[in-house]
């Protein structure tokens, strides 16, 4: 039960961190290094609470994060993506299992496209001449929250609810064998 509570708490903390990253990116066009570091440093505790083994599970998470960083650093070098965005996505790659990380990337790209069209239209209507800066942390947060909500939080909430119910039933002698 304690591990499930820690697991669920970590997922909620990650969701809050993603919301904070989106907020600061909208407000300042910056995602703080301390926030990205906190997300990355929370991953090993999440691995433990998830029961991941060092080989191959944790090694795979690290491999995906390294690959993501290499690709995203290239996009940063091309000035397509900001440094905070690169670090946030790399930190998320430590948390999200590989196939779901691909889902996050697709949702991020779609929501980022919508965000770009909306902000570009607003920029055009206001006849602004300066370079349009898209707060892509918002799209990253949308993708991350989507993946968390659809794949991680329901399982954790379900497990927490029913582990608690099972322990109450056992304490009251209401098990299948008692009937």
Notes on the structure:
This protein is mainly α. It has one domain. Helix content is 82%, strand content 0%. It has six helices and no strands. α1 runs antiparallel to α6, α2 packs parallel to α4 and α5 crosses α6. The longest helix is centred in the C-terminal third of the chain and has 36 residues. The radius of gyration is 20 Å and the shape is elongated. The two termini are 25 Å apart.
Summarize this structure briefly.
InterPro entries: Preflagellin_Peptidase (IPR052218), Prepilin_IV_endopep_pep (IPR000045). By secondary structure, this protein is an all-alpha fold.
Write a concise keyword list for the protein shown above.
single chain; 179 residues; mainly alpha; 6 helices; disordered C terminus; transmembrane helix; Peptidase; cell membrane; Preflagellin_Peptidase
Topology:
Layout: H1 2-28, H2 33-50, H3 54-77, H4 83-95, H5 98-125, H6 136-171
Helix pairs in contact: 1-2, 1-6, 2-4, 3-4, 4-6, 5-6
Pfam families: Peptidase_A24
Domain Prepilin type IV endopeptidase peptidase: 12-116
Protein name: Peptidase
């Amino acid at each position: 039960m304690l591990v499930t509570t820690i697991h669920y708490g970590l997922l909620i903390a990650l969701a809050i961190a993603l919301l904070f990253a989106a907020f600061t990116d909208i407000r300042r066009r910056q995602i703080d290094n301390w926030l990205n570091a906190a997300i990355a440093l929370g991953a090993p505790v999440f691995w433990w609470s998830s029961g991941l083994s060092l080989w191959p599970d944790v090694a795979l998470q690290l491999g995906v994060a390294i690959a993501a960083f290499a690709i995203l650093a290239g996009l940063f070098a091309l000035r397509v993506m900001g440094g905070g965005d690169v670090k946030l996505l790399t930190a998320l790659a430590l948390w999200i299992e590989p196939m779901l990380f691909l889902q996050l990337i697709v949702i991020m790209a779609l929501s980022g496209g919508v965000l770009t069209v909306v902000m570009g239209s607003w920029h055009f209507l206001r006849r602004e001449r300066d370079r349009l800066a898209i707060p892509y942390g918002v799209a990253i947060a949308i993708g991350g929250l989507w993946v968390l909500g659809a794949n991680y939080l329901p399982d954790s909430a379900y497990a927490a609810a029913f582990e608690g119910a099972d322990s109450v039933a056992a304490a009251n002698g209401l098990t299948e064998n008692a009937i």
